C-alpha cells in the first residue's frame, strides 16, 4: 500500500506577505501588501485560508508587531470567536423536528440587534464582580445584561452533525456592545495620535498605539477585559443551549468534548532569536 502526502505550503504573494489562502481577490492582496509595509511589523504578515477584505486590516490575517498594537486589526468586536461542544448524542437521538428546541432557545438566549436579557443573571453578576469592567465602559449595566446573549450580524447558534452523526453545539459570538464601543474608542484615539504627529498612513485605519504610552496601556487593559467577556459569553451560551437540548429530550446529556477560542484578538508573545 502506498501513501502520498502533501504539505500545504504558503505562497509569498507580496514582500513580507505569506498566504495560505487558495482564493484571494486583488483588493485583498493589495490591502495585505500595504499592511506589510508598516514600520512596526515584526516578521511576515500571514493570510489564512479565509482571508478577505476588511476595514483597515485584512480579515483572516495574522499580523506580528513590535512594541505596538493596531486596534482596527483586532477589529470592532474584540474577542469575537467560535465555541463548540460535542454532546454524547447522535442525530438519531434527536426528535424529527427541532421546533421545540428553537422555541426554548428563543426564550433562553436573546438574539438580534438590541436584544439582551431583561435583567442581569446571577452568573453574569458573579462574573462582573470577579472581573470589574474598565472605567472606559460607559454602560456596565447593559453589558451585564448582554452577557450570555448572541447579538446580530453573522453571529449564530446551531446544532451540527459531524461525519459520525455526532451532535455538536456550534456558535459564533463576541463581546457584544461593550467590546464594540471600547474598540471604536481606541481606534479613534490611535487615529487622532497619528494625525497629531503628522504621521502619513496609506490607510488611517492602520494607526497604532505605541508601547510605553498611557493610550497603549489603556487599550491593552480594555482588550483583555473584552476578550474575557467574549469567552465567558460563549461559555454561558454553550451551557444554555445544552440545557435547552436536555429540556427538549427530557433527560441529561453528557459533554464529550469542547473548544472555545477567539479569532479577533491579540496577545503579547516573546519569540526566541528576536
Short description:
The chain has 274 residues and is α+β, with helices and mostly antiparallel strands. The chain has seven helices and ten strands.
Question: Topology of this protein?
Answer:
Elements: E1 11-14, E2 17-19, H1 26-35, E3 45-52, E4 59-62, E5 68-69, H2 71-74, E6 81-90, H3 99-108, H4 122-130, H5 140-146, E7 156-161, E8 166-173, H6 176-197, E9 209-210, H7 214-249, E10 255-262
Helix pairs in contact: 3-7, 6-7
* SSE class: alpha+beta
Task: Strand order, main sheet: write it out.
Answer: 1-2-3-4
| Number of separate helices | 7
Q: Tally of extended strands?
A: 10
Describe the biggest sheet? Answer: 4 strands, mixed
- Beta-strand proportion: 15-25%
Q: How many whole angstroms does the radius of gyration measure?
A: 21 Å
> Level of helix content?
25-40%
What's the overall geometry? globular
Averaged pLDDT: 92
Helix and strand sequence: EEHEEEHEHHHEEHEHE
Question: How far from one another are the termini?
Answer: 45 Å
Low-confidence blocks of residues = none
Question: Could you explain the architecture of this structure?
Answer:
The chain has 274 residues and is an alpha+beta fold. The chain is built from 7 helices and 10 strands. It has a 4-stranded mixed β-sheet with strand order 1-2-3-4, with helices on one face. It has a 4-stranded antiparallel β-sheet with strand order 7-8-6-10, with helices on one face. Strands 5-9 form a two-stranded antiparallel ribbon. Helix 3 crosses helix 7. The longest helix has 36 residues. It is globular and about 65 Å long. The model has no long low-confidence stretch (mean pLDDT 92).
